[in-house]
Amino acid sequence: PMLEVARDMSLGAHPYLVPVEHTAKAREILGPDPLLIPEHKVIIETDADKARERARAAIGWYLGIENYKRNLFWMGFTEDDIADGGSDRLIDALVAHGDAETVVAKLRGHLDAGADQVAIQALTGPEDPFGVEMLRQIAPAILRRPATAPEDNRCTVCNCGQDRSVMRTCIRTCEALGPRASPGDVPAGAGCTENEGAEAALD
Fold first, then answer.
1. Residue 85, by phi and psi: left (phi above 0), alpha (psi -120 to 50) or beta?
2. What does pTM read for this prediction?
3. How far apart are the C-alpha atoms of 102 and 112, rounded to whole Å?
4. How far, in Å, CA of 3 to CA of 180, rounded?
5. N or C end of the chain: smaller count of CB under 10 Å?
């Protein structure tokens, strides 16, 4: 119901503590136009047990709150998944962990499922209380986009060859000008090539 309210009465939705599968369902409910910007937590840690331990410490208390529980049940998780700080299956769905490339691949799953952007929350320790160092580690992987996309999925305005699925908001701005616009017609800061550095939140 809240996604329907977001669709009908706002510019879009900003879901919190949701897996990639939620993004696909949310896009289906919202339709193509409203913004969809899910949050996803990340941990740069290749030891899965250590990563899950940190993840449980961070999200465990959410699992006792009814609205979050209902949302997770809607996604097919069970009481067993919610118990004891969260099953491995639940934790892995809600918190991307591993090396930078693995984490970013998980985040891109939201874009593939229909998100416009992804809000990244770094789960860190006292040595990096604001997550700045962790975000620095994943930034190069975020900005390392494919040089070209399949021909039927390329930007049709900037002629940069970038994949529409990883530049959705930028593409909306460009293509509003019309499919035959030239790169010079794109406002500064709006086109794919001008915007890619600034769109570090995975758009």
1. left
2. 0.74
3. 15
4. 34
5. N
- State the average pLDDT for the chain: 81
Do 155 and 167 touch, CB atoms closer than 8 A? yes
Three-state DSSP state, 156: coil
Q: What angle do CA 118, 12, 44 make, to 5 degrees?
A: 15
Q: pLDDT tens digit string along 32-62?
A: 999 999 999 999 999 999 999 999 999 999 9
Q: With beta carbons less than 8 A apart as the criterion, state whether 97 and 43 touch.
A: yes
Using DSSP, state whether 51 is helix, strand or coil.
helix
Yes or no: say if 166 and 106 are a contact pair by the CB < 8 Å rule.
no
Split at pLDDT 50, 70, 90, the class of 144 is: confident
- The C-alpha atoms of residue 50 and residue 58 are separated, in whole angstroms, by 13
Write the single-letter amino acid at 171.
I
Distances (CA, A) of 63 to 60, 81, 85: 5, 10, 7
pLDDT tens column, 8-25: 999 999 999 999 999 999
